[in-house]
Amino acid sequence: MRQTDQTAIVLRHAPYRDNDRMLTLLSPTRGRVEALARGCRRPKSPLMSASELFALGDFDFYDRCGRMTVTSATLIETFYPLRADFDRLAVGVYLLNLCEAAAQPGQGCQELFMLLLHTLSRLTFSDQAWKPLLAGFLLHFSAINGVKPRLNHCIACGRRLSVSEQVYFDVAEGGLCCHDCRAPGQTALAEAQAAWLRMALRSGSSAWINTPDCYAPYTLLRHFVESRLERPLRSAAMLPKDE
Ligand SMILES: [Zn+2]
Questions:
Q1: Beta bridge partners of 169
Q2: How many Å apart are CA 190 and CA 165, to the nearest integer?
Q3: Domain ranges of the chain
């Protein structure tokens, strides 16, 4: 995808006056942007499609004393097919909410932007299972936000962990623990799950998406990421249950 200084994706919209919306956008160069889309709820408004959730486009802004208004928008992608599958739509909204929570106004977030775009594209246009996709997103999301889980050494004794030994994930400490140092509240991981975490963290999304659901500790990674947010995400309650 070509990307310009104007490229952004709509993370949230809220009604504003009769025909307007306040948009929350993620821009790789500007971070989180709040901007008013005037008249976008009128039929035939040129801003209508670009003011929907997930809309990816090039947005022109008018900045008046820090209050941004969208003056024009060129739509690149709507991710429309997401709306046809409730589970995948719920995952998509959850991804948007996580990015909104992590991005800061005025701080570029190229890596986060690309992670969101790649994940949304696969969620929308491929039939790959959503659990490993979301688990991979959560793992890389935490790394981008400076809380990369420690997977190669025990968080308590520092000993290098072998690939075949029993390990435990500690959500609060953010890493794996060996059998000798294990503590209450930690989650025992199957060997395949620990291997999946290490593989997914060092590879791009093409490597982790085709793994069986059971290898990707998706619920665990949700706890890991959500426990570090300032406030709970309402969309988390909409996610499909983990069987
Ligand atoms: Zn240890």
A1: 176, 187
A2: 9
A3: 7-77, 81-234
CA distance 94 to 86: 12
Average pLDDT score over residue span 100-105: 96
Question: What stretch of H or E contains 9?
Answer: strand 7-16
In DSSP terms, 53 is beta-bridged to: none
**pLDDT: which is higher, 232 or 14:** 14
141 CA → ligand 1 middle, Å? 26
Amino acid identity of 70?
A: V
CA within 13 Å, CB half, 148: 11
d(CA 22, CA 140): 29
CA of 163 to the centre of ligand 1 (A): 14
**Ligand 1 center to 185 CA (angstroms):** 15
Q: Which CATH number fits domain 81-234: 3.40.50.720, 1.20.1440.120, 3.40.1390.30, 3.20.20.70?
A: 1.20.1440.120
- Domain 7-77, architecture per CATH: Beta Barrel (2.40)
What Rg value do the Cα atoms of the chain yield, rounded?
Answer: 20
Please return the burial class of 4, using the count of CB atoms within 10 Å of its CB with bins 0-12, 13-18 and 19+: exposed
Mean pLDDT, residues 30-36:
96
CA–centroid distance, residue 134 to ligand 1 (Å): 29
Q: How many Å lie between the centroid of ligand 1 and the Cα of residue 179?
A: 7
Distances (CA, A) of 154 to 2, 14, 150, 158, 201: 42, 45, 8, 5, 17
In whole angstroms, give the CA distance from residue 196 to residue 54.
Answer: 29
- Is the pTM for the entire model greater than 0.90? yes
